[in-house]
Amino acid sequence: MREKSWHLVAYDVCDPARLRKVGRIMKGYGERKQFSVYCCYLTDRGRERLRWEIKKIMKDEDELLMIELCENCVKRLKSTHAKGAWPDEPASFEVV
After folding, report:
1. Which of 22, 31, 78, 92 has the highest CB neighbour number within 10 Å of its CB?
2. Residue 61, domain extent
């Protein structure tokens, strides 16, 4: 299995109820950068699972965009806020 990589995930959901559901799903996968834009550190399998979960909620008029970012792309990303920087890997957590 391939290692994890960064993905830029953006969505446009027309219905407010569906929009909230997609937002709740996204919180479990990545960090919000803008209202409907997240950065996610995913394996190929994780990316497909995320896409599957969101597409179950979305209708034909809704849109989902997932872009895998290469290492060089991530290094060149700029943000106007220090919080917006993309680390090489997200912080890991230890369950005690």
Report:
1. 22
2. 5-74
